[in-house]
Amino acid sequence: MIRIMEKADKLSNMRHTLAHLLAAAAGEIYKFDKIKLTLGPAIENGFYYDIDFCDEKVTDSNLKKIEDVMRKKLSKWTEWEHKEISKDEALKFFKNEYKAELINEIAERGEKITTYTCGGFTDLCRGGHVENPAKEIMPDSFKLDRIAGAYWRGDEKKRMLTRIYGLAFNTKEELGAYIAQREEAEKRDHRKIGQQLGLFTISEKIGKGLPLFTPQGTLLRELLNDYSQSLRAEKGWQKVWSPHITKNDLYKISGHWDKFGRELFLVKSQETSDELVMKPMNCPHHQQIYASSLHSYKELPIKYMETTTVYRDEKAGELLGLSRVRCITQDDSHTFCTPDQIEKIYEELIEITQTFYKIIGIKIRARLSFRNPNEPEKYLGEPKLWEKAQEILLKTAKKNKLDYFEAIGEAAFYGPKIDFMGTDALGREWQLATPQLDFVQPKRFGLTYIDNEGKEQTPVMIHFALMGSIERFLSVYIEHTAGIFPLWLSPVQVKVIPVRENHNEYAKKVFKLLKENNIRAELDDTNQNLGTKVRDAKNNKVPYWIVIGDKEIEAKKLTLESRDKGNIGQMLQEKLVEKLLEEIKNKK
């Protein structure tokens, strides 16, 4: 573990060093007295630097020139000189308003103001570099990537700067592998495939972050949700329903208003003075269903589930296809139980999660998302309850032999959780299912049950979403599969293709037989040649198509072709239906 951390720190330091080198190259080309340097950190996969080029227009076409100067200068970057300077010295040396803002903030915090110099270039910096850049950075292991606009300090009211992004890895091979992976990711972009397959659309007339699903896309959503609900129903979860708007008092009690009030959509009533919001989550609603009657320990655990849409006012600049939206459909569950039932509930949720993602074909591991003890202000509840909850999750992970790791600071504000992280076909990791332990909200809402001694106790609440957000899950799943869905999930499972018009009558009978057996089929009896019809089936990634010509009618059989396995050959209609139904039943 220590070696992994050291390697990660060295790569981060290398990327930070390259951000300085980028600033030095830009200053040499565009003249330091005519541009204004701001700041440039290391980021995942590389680095960037934000620059105010003033009247100079810089585009992607300028990147190669800057990159060439970076490589030329790199050979002279052999050591760093570190200095601590006063506020006045810093303001005199760094003469632009951006650096002045940073310097004043550092001074106000009572921190040391430091500069680092390498190869004749000096920048305001806290440190974190490779000691000898010329020796430790390979010239072919980095590449300037693209240019984007970025507001100073992320504030839309401030000046737009030019952000130059770079990629950097330990070796040329690692850089090449990342670029190849990214190119493949672009091909698999769920927005492109979603449009190609006609699954969803986003209309400017409706608004950003508010996707519309077509019949085929809706079918895909519902098939996934039906499976999600069936797995939970088998373990005793029952459906409930809650409205989409609520008084904001509900979230003030839960603690969400103080934490996320700015992310809520406000609703104004024409009839009452109530302050209403679009619901951003379901847990407080489900707690009110629980609170509507008295409960004995004999009734627990009580298990609710609801697939419903919640709403959050995400920033427009962060919205992206289905992966970041303002209407979020959750396959949500909430369980109210006694403390000694926690392990059993978690075992059930782990089993459900493992079953679902095995069928989906995504490998998962568990992230134990714990509280950061150094930032107590971020969390609600007593530290002792947090410690107890985290001990339970760690014990559960070990007992169930999960592939897990701990992540300090990733807990929700009201409880620790197990985040199941899924690795897609490109090796990218995504947060998916989440069972979350909560000792805080039930107490805030005054929820109780009567124990075996007749005393009132506070139940434990376990939040769980199997897909998390259906929209975000679909963005991951579409890219994971490249839109090549298994038979049971494909909106169109079979396409019936008559070769010529005189084969249409027999094709219609086959189509009718498939529909009668609840197999999702399409009949392509358009006046097109066979090659065009087959190409259309392939482009739409249909799992199977049936070709019907003279030979098939004469033999009273069907020729089945597979998207994945090619020509399967002729078979009787009954055998075909039997084969397809078996595959659908087994979720192939």
Automatic annotation (TrEMBL):
EC code(s) of this entry: 6.1.1.3
Compartments where found: Cytoplasm
Catalysis performed (reactions): tRNA(Thr) + L-threonine + ATP = L-threonyl-tRNA(Thr) + AMP + diphosphate + H(+)
Cofactors that this protein relies on: Zn(2+)
Alphabetical GO biological process terms: threonyl-tRNA aminoacylation
Residue ranges of domain Aminoacyl-transfer RNA synthetases class-II family profile in the record: 189-486
Enzyme class per UniProt: ligase
Binding-site residues, Zn(2+): C283, H334, H463
GO molecular function, one term: metal ion binding
This protein's GO CC annotations: cytoplasm
Cofactor note: Binds 1 zinc ion per subunit.
UniProt entry keywords in alphabetical sequence: Aminoacyl-tRNA synthetase, ATP-binding, Cytoplasm, Ligase, Metal-binding, Nucleotide-binding, Protein biosynthesis, RNA-binding, tRNA-binding, Zinc
Gene3D superfamilies: 3.30.54.20, Anticodon-binding domain (3.40.50.800), Bira Bifunctional Protein, Domain 2 (3.30.930.10), Threonyl-trna Synthetase, Chain A, domain 2 (3.30.980.10)
InterPro entries linked to this entry: aa-tRNA-synt_IIb, aa-tRNA-synth_II, aa-tRNA-synth_II/BPL/LPL, Anticodon-bd, Anticodon-bd_dom_sf, Thr-tRNA-ligase_IIa, Thr/Ala-tRNA-synth_IIc_edit, ThrRS_anticodon
Record's keyword annotation contains Transmembrane: no
CDD domains assigned: ThrRS_anticodon, ThrRS_core
Domain of life of the source: Bacteria
PANTHER family: THREONINE--TRNA LIGASE, CHLOROPLASTIC_MITOCHONDRIAL 2 (PTHR11451:SF44), THREONINE-TRNA LIGASE (PTHR11451)
Complex formation: Homodimer.
HAMAP family named in the record: Thr_tRNA_synth
Family: Belongs to the class-II aminoacyl-tRNA synthetase family.
Name this polypeptide is given: Threonine--tRNA ligase
Organism: Candidatus Yanofskybacteria bacterium GW2011_GWC2_37_9
